[in-house]
Amino acid sequence: MKRIAVCLLAAGLLLLSACSGSIKDRLRGTWRLDSVNGMTVAEYSKQSGIDISGLNISWIISGDTVTAKVGDSPLIEDKPIEYTDNGFTVEGDNATTTFTFNAEKDTLTYSGEVGGLRIVYTLTRDEVG
Fold it and tell me: Is residue 71 part of a domain?
């Protein structure tokens, strides 16, 4: 019984140490668009009329840069990012976009305005960098 308790304690400590890394380390990897305004990508595609292939969006975070792709086609490449306590910001041509990390759900969210409507995008981790 004592051996099981020690193993559980060790596993818990390993989990805590893995989760307590820097935000830069925690966000490194590939993130894929999972939902738009709370709808799945498929639901949003159907409702908006946007072809689902245009919603195959991934963000690759590597060190101090981010690359965004639709399918295999780059939208932005190696754009510098500024880390915050709970995510990062990236400067676009006309605006700064803030990405917010939810550690509990392991998601990133960002939003923008399209045609006067606020759109909230949620990304889930696809692979760790």
Answer: yes
